[in-house]
Amino acid sequence: ALDIARQRARRRGLEDKITWVRASLLDLPDSGLGPFDYINCSGVLHHLDSPADGLAALTSVLKDDGALGLMLYGRYGRTGVYQMQQLMRLINHGEHRSRAMVENTKEVLASLPNTNWLKRTPTLIGEKDQLDDAEIFDIFLHAKDRPYSVLEVYDLLDRENLHLVEFLYEERAMYDYQFAFRGEGLQRQVARLPRRYQQAAAELFWGTLDRHKFWASRHTDTTADARDPQNVPVFSKLAESIGMPESIVTTVNSSSLVWRPSIDARHGMTISFNLELNDVNRQLVRLIDGRHTMGEIVRTITSGADSPTADENVWNLCCETLESLRKFDFVVLHHESVPGIDKL
């Protein structure tokens, strides 16, 4: 793993800017390292004897105002994997040779009936005949693999007094009850629940969330505020990779009244939403260039307005639009004092 990380850093010209350490995550509290502004830990905690101890070790070297980026396996979305793991434990009972265990697994995968849960969710692991031996071992034969539901993720964070800031990227919509439950009555019912239970209901509704990727921090006010006049909106790399800036700019420059993007989510699912266009958000979109601050954008839009309430109305409309775009990380915000950030 360390060699692969070095190769990736080398390709980006970063190898000499990184301090490389080979040690156990659990040794962090006494390592003399840190404290850190940001810690990324993807696909590690759920393979430990005690994920809670692993998270405690990470938190011990996190700055008070720092953040964590975490990924944990999802309990319900990996149902087929865990049934397969249990099956292979039965078949491989008494077998200790890794090669033989992998070959047994390959044979079972090739003969699964259509009634098997893994076979019924083919997008869960991709093409089974394209998995290499290491991937087969990691997915189906790993001795330690502890999955989490949304509520279990919150419980884990609660133990370290951490706050779940947001789930990541396009899958964030999969945790939003408004995308899951479209009827007004159901939406009103779910809206009464605390946020974590709303997200838990959405997880159970979709049934496909096989991993939870999210940011966590000690504080509840860590999300950039669109109302801060010194924050700069910018189209993200994610948005650019799927052509969203061109799509929305083309739409606002046309006579269309609504922008209707679609986003490909995991397991062949598509998320769609409507953004109603008006004079304010048409101008907002045109002014998002990674240089103009929110204060400058609002002043540009309100210049020449006669109404004393125009400024507040523009702020409200801009924030509503940015909230819709930020749900998918199409637009991100950074403070103008942070140098060298053009695309996040």
Task: Report what the structure shows.
- It holds the Pfam family Methyltransf_12.
- This is Methyltransferase type 12 domain-containing protein.
- InterPro entries: Methyltransf_12, SAM-dependent_MTases_sf.
- This protein folds into three domains: 2-75 and 147-217, Rossmann fold (3-Layer(aba) Sandwich); 79-140, no CATH class; 231-335.
- Helices cover 41% and strands 15% of the residues.
- It has a four-stranded mixed beta sheet.
- The model has no long low-confidence stretch (mean pLDDT 90).
- Strand 1 (36-42), helix 2 and strand 2 form a beta-alpha-beta unit.
- The protein has helices at 2-11, 51-60, 79-91, 98-111, 117-120, 133-140, 150-159, 177-180, 184-191, 195-206, 237-241, 244-252, 279-287, 294-302, 310-326, and strands at residues 36-42, 62-73, 163-167, 211-217, 231-235, 258-259, 262-264, 270-272, 275-276, 331-335.
- 24% of the residues are buried.
- It starts with a helix and ends in a 9-residue tail after the last strand.
